[in-house]
Design a protein that fits this description.
about 240 residues, mainly beta, 6-stranded antiparallel beta sheet, 2 domains, 7-stranded antiparallel beta sheet, Jelly Rolls
Length: about 240
Protein backbone atom coordinates (compact mmCIF):
# COMPACT_ATOMS: atom_id res chain seq x y z
CA UNK A 1 0.00 0.00 0.00
CA UNK A 2 1.17 3.48 -0.89
CA UNK A 3 -0.46 6.26 1.12
CA UNK A 4 -0.14 10.04 0.78
CA UNK A 5 -1.45 12.33 3.53
CA UNK A 6 -3.31 15.49 2.44
CA UNK A 7 -3.80 17.76 5.49
CA UNK A 8 -6.80 20.08 5.41
CA UNK A 9 -4.49 22.90 6.53
CA UNK A 10 -2.53 22.66 3.26
CA UNK A 11 -5.52 23.10 0.94
CA UNK A 12 -5.72 26.15 -1.26
CA UNK A 13 -8.11 28.86 -0.12
CA UNK A 14 -10.06 31.58 -1.93
CA UNK A 15 -12.54 33.91 -0.25
CA UNK A 16 -14.57 36.25 -2.46
CA UNK A 17 -17.08 37.19 0.22
CA UNK A 18 -20.02 35.40 -1.38
CA UNK A 19 -17.85 32.29 -1.95
CA UNK A 20 -15.44 30.79 0.59
CA UNK A 21 -13.72 27.83 -1.07
CA UNK A 22 -11.02 25.35 -0.08
CA UNK A 23 -9.21 23.51 -2.88
CA UNK A 24 -7.73 20.04 -2.39
CA UNK A 25 -6.12 20.30 -5.85
CA UNK A 26 -4.81 23.19 -7.94
CA UNK A 27 -7.69 25.39 -9.00
CA UNK A 28 -8.21 28.98 -10.16
CA UNK A 29 -5.38 31.21 -8.98
CA UNK A 30 -4.02 28.59 -6.57
CA UNK A 31 -1.42 26.23 -7.98
CA UNK A 32 0.64 23.59 -6.20
CA UNK A 33 2.67 21.33 -8.53
CA UNK A 34 2.42 18.52 -5.96
CA UNK A 35 -1.39 18.78 -5.88
CA UNK A 36 -2.63 18.85 -9.47
CA UNK A 37 -4.64 15.62 -9.32
CA UNK A 38 -4.92 12.20 -7.73
CA UNK A 39 -5.31 9.84 -10.65
CA UNK A 40 -8.48 10.82 -12.51
CA UNK A 41 -9.60 13.02 -9.57
CA UNK A 42 -8.84 16.54 -10.80
CA UNK A 43 -10.83 18.89 -8.51
CA UNK A 44 -12.26 18.65 -5.01
CA UNK A 45 -13.55 22.02 -3.85
CA UNK A 46 -15.18 22.53 -0.46
CA UNK A 47 -17.47 25.47 -1.26
CA UNK A 48 -19.44 27.71 1.10
CA UNK A 49 -21.83 30.11 -0.68
CA UNK A 50 -23.77 32.88 1.07
CA UNK A 51 -27.53 33.26 0.72
CA UNK A 52 -28.75 34.28 -2.73
CA UNK A 53 -25.29 34.03 -4.33
CA UNK A 54 -23.82 31.51 -6.73
CA UNK A 55 -22.13 30.69 -10.00
CA UNK A 56 -23.61 32.33 -13.10
CA UNK A 57 -23.95 30.58 -16.45
CA UNK A 58 -20.56 29.21 -17.56
CA UNK A 59 -19.25 26.43 -19.85
CA UNK A 60 -17.53 23.09 -19.27
CA UNK A 61 -16.45 20.26 -21.55
CA UNK A 62 -14.97 16.78 -21.17
CA UNK A 63 -15.25 16.56 -17.41
CA UNK A 64 -17.45 14.56 -15.03
CA UNK A 65 -18.71 17.12 -12.48
CA UNK A 66 -20.26 15.93 -9.21
CA UNK A 67 -21.99 18.16 -6.64
CA UNK A 68 -22.79 16.90 -3.13
CA UNK A 69 -24.54 19.34 -0.72
CA UNK A 70 -24.01 18.75 3.00
CA UNK A 71 -25.86 21.79 4.35
CA UNK A 72 -28.47 23.73 2.41
CA UNK A 73 -29.60 23.42 -1.21
CA UNK A 74 -28.58 24.56 -4.70
CA UNK A 75 -30.66 25.64 -7.67
CA UNK A 76 -29.33 24.29 -10.96
CA UNK A 77 -29.95 25.14 -14.60
CA UNK A 78 -28.08 23.87 -17.65
CA UNK A 79 -28.16 23.70 -21.42
CA UNK A 80 -29.62 20.15 -21.40
CA UNK A 81 -32.87 21.76 -20.21
CA UNK A 82 -32.48 20.70 -16.58
CA UNK A 83 -33.89 23.14 -14.03
CA UNK A 84 -34.17 22.00 -10.43
CA UNK A 85 -32.97 21.96 -6.83
CA UNK A 86 -30.16 19.84 -5.36
CA UNK A 87 -30.85 19.26 -1.66
CA UNK A 88 -28.81 17.84 1.21
CA UNK A 89 -28.86 14.07 0.70
CA UNK A 90 -28.83 14.45 -3.09
CA UNK A 91 -25.93 13.75 -5.44
CA UNK A 92 -25.80 15.43 -8.86
CA UNK A 93 -23.59 14.66 -11.83
CA UNK A 94 -23.05 16.33 -15.17
CA UNK A 95 -21.15 14.63 -17.95
CA UNK A 96 -20.00 17.79 -19.71
CA UNK A 97 -18.85 15.80 -22.75
CA UNK A 98 -18.77 17.84 -25.97
CA UNK A 99 -19.90 20.95 -24.09
CA UNK A 100 -22.44 22.13 -21.52
CA UNK A 101 -23.35 25.45 -19.91
CA UNK A 102 -24.78 25.62 -16.40
CA UNK A 103 -25.40 27.82 -13.38
CA UNK A 104 -25.66 26.97 -9.67
CA UNK A 105 -26.98 29.28 -6.96
CA UNK A 106 -27.74 28.98 -3.28
CA UNK A 107 -31.45 28.09 -3.16
CA UNK A 108 -31.87 30.16 0.02
CA UNK A 109 -31.74 33.96 0.06
CA UNK A 110 -30.55 33.97 3.68
CA UNK A 111 -28.89 30.71 4.74
CA UNK A 112 -25.47 29.54 3.50
CA UNK A 113 -24.94 26.34 1.54
CA UNK A 114 -21.93 24.03 1.83
CA UNK A 115 -21.23 21.53 -0.92
CA UNK A 116 -18.41 19.62 -2.52
CA UNK A 117 -17.72 20.22 -6.20
CA UNK A 118 -15.71 17.32 -7.63
CA UNK A 119 -14.29 16.90 -11.13
CA UNK A 120 -13.30 13.54 -12.59
CA UNK A 121 -11.38 13.20 -15.88
CA UNK A 122 -13.70 11.22 -18.20
CA UNK A 123 -13.11 7.81 -19.71
CA UNK A 124 -14.53 8.74 -23.14
CA UNK A 125 -14.23 12.26 -24.54
CA UNK A 126 -16.85 14.29 -26.41
CA UNK A 127 -19.87 12.21 -25.41
CA UNK A 128 -23.36 13.69 -25.58
CA UNK A 129 -23.74 15.93 -22.48
CA UNK A 130 -25.97 14.38 -19.83
CA UNK A 131 -27.31 15.14 -16.37
CA UNK A 132 -28.40 12.94 -13.48
CA UNK A 133 -29.45 13.49 -9.88
CA UNK A 134 -30.58 11.15 -7.12
CA UNK A 135 -31.70 11.41 -3.49
CA UNK A 136 -30.15 9.04 -0.96
CA UNK A 137 -31.34 7.85 2.45
CA UNK A 138 -28.83 9.27 4.94
CA UNK A 139 -29.67 6.53 7.47
CA UNK A 140 -28.69 3.83 4.95
CA UNK A 141 -25.00 4.78 5.15
CA UNK A 142 -24.72 4.11 8.91
CA UNK A 143 -21.91 1.58 9.41
CA UNK A 144 -21.71 0.67 5.73
CA UNK A 145 -20.68 2.13 2.40
CA UNK A 146 -23.47 3.75 0.39
CA UNK A 147 -22.41 3.92 -3.26
CA UNK A 148 -23.63 7.24 -4.73
CA UNK A 149 -21.65 7.40 -8.02
CA UNK A 150 -20.73 4.43 -10.21
CA UNK A 151 -20.53 3.35 -13.86
CA UNK A 152 -22.40 0.22 -12.75
CA UNK A 153 -26.00 1.39 -12.34
CA UNK A 154 -26.90 -1.79 -10.44
CA UNK A 155 -24.96 -0.33 -7.47
CA UNK A 156 -27.62 2.36 -7.10
CA UNK A 157 -25.54 5.48 -7.70
CA UNK A 158 -25.71 8.07 -10.46
CA UNK A 159 -23.88 7.01 -13.62
CA UNK A 160 -20.39 8.34 -14.41
CA UNK A 161 -18.36 8.21 -17.62
CA UNK A 162 -15.31 6.69 -15.90
CA UNK A 163 -14.26 3.57 -13.97
CA UNK A 164 -14.78 5.60 -10.79
CA UNK A 165 -16.98 5.19 -7.71
CA UNK A 166 -17.99 7.44 -4.82
CA UNK A 167 -19.26 6.05 -1.52
CA UNK A 168 -20.27 7.59 1.82
CA UNK A 169 -20.47 6.18 5.34
CA UNK A 170 -21.20 7.30 8.89
CA UNK A 171 -19.34 5.48 11.68
CA UNK A 172 -19.83 5.37 15.43
CA UNK A 173 -16.93 5.97 17.81
CA UNK A 174 -14.17 3.39 17.19
CA UNK A 175 -16.15 1.57 14.49
CA UNK A 176 -14.18 -0.08 11.67
CA UNK A 177 -15.06 -0.48 8.01
CA UNK A 178 -13.16 -1.91 5.03
CA UNK A 179 -13.21 -0.73 1.43
CA UNK A 180 -12.39 -2.80 -1.66
CA UNK A 181 -11.87 -1.03 -5.01
CA UNK A 182 -14.13 -2.37 -7.75
CA UNK A 183 -11.62 -1.85 -10.56
CA UNK A 184 -8.18 -3.44 -10.47
CA UNK A 185 -5.38 -0.88 -10.22
CA UNK A 186 -7.63 1.93 -9.03
CA UNK A 187 -6.56 4.25 -6.24
CA UNK A 188 -8.83 5.62 -3.51
CA UNK A 189 -9.00 9.15 -2.12
CA UNK A 190 -10.45 9.03 1.41
CA UNK A 191 -11.83 12.37 2.64
CA UNK A 192 -12.97 12.96 6.23
CA UNK A 193 -16.16 15.02 6.16
CA UNK A 194 -16.66 15.10 9.92
CA UNK A 195 -14.92 13.54 12.90
CA UNK A 196 -11.63 11.68 12.77
CA UNK A 197 -10.28 8.39 11.44
CA UNK A 198 -7.21 6.22 11.00
CA UNK A 199 -6.37 3.99 8.04
CA UNK A 200 -4.85 0.73 9.26
CA UNK A 201 -1.32 -0.02 7.97
CA UNK A 202 -1.09 3.33 6.14
CA UNK A 203 1.66 4.73 8.40
CA UNK A 204 0.26 8.25 8.09
CA UNK A 205 -1.01 10.61 10.80
CA UNK A 206 -4.54 10.18 12.10
CA UNK A 207 -7.05 12.08 9.95
CA UNK A 208 -9.12 14.95 11.28
CA UNK A 209 -12.01 16.89 9.77
CA UNK A 210 -11.40 17.60 6.05
CA UNK A 211 -8.06 15.76 6.05
CA UNK A 212 -7.59 13.20 3.29
CA UNK A 213 -5.38 10.30 2.31
CA UNK A 214 -4.64 9.00 -1.19
CA UNK A 215 -4.23 5.22 -1.27
CA UNK A 216 -2.89 3.20 -4.19
CA UNK A 217 -1.61 -0.36 -4.63
CA UNK A 218 -4.10 -1.81 -2.14
CA UNK A 219 -6.70 -4.49 -2.87
CA UNK A 220 -8.47 -3.52 0.35
CA UNK A 221 -7.95 -1.27 3.36
CA UNK A 222 -9.62 -0.74 6.73
CA UNK A 223 -10.61 2.55 8.36
CA UNK A 224 -11.36 3.05 12.03
CA UNK A 225 -13.32 6.03 13.36
CA UNK A 226 -11.74 8.04 16.15
CA UNK A 227 -13.25 9.26 19.42
CA UNK A 228 -16.30 10.86 17.78
CA UNK A 229 -18.96 10.07 15.21
CA UNK A 230 -17.28 10.18 11.80
CA UNK A 231 -18.47 10.72 8.23
CA UNK A 232 -16.29 9.62 5.31
CA UNK A 233 -16.26 9.96 1.54
CA UNK A 234 -14.23 7.64 -0.67
CA UNK A 235 -13.54 8.41 -4.32
CA UNK A 236 -12.19 5.46 -6.31
CA UNK A 237 -10.42 6.46 -9.52
CA UNK A 238 -8.06 5.08 -12.18
CA UNK A 239 -4.47 6.11 -11.44
CA UNK A 240 -3.83 8.16 -14.58
CA UNK A 241 -0.31 9.54 -15.05
Amino acid sequence: MKAVFYPASERGHANFGWLDSYHSFSFGNWYDPAKVHFGALRVLNDDHVTGGAGFGLHPHDNMEIVSIPFAGSLTHKDSTGTDGIIRTGDVQIMSAGSGIRHSEYNASKTDPVNFLQIWIIPKVRNIQPRYDQKSFDLAARAGQWQVVVSPDETEGGVWINQDSRFALTRLDVGQEISFTPKFKGNGVYLFVLEGSAEVKDARTPALGRRDAIGISGADQFTVQAGSESTELLVIEVPMLS
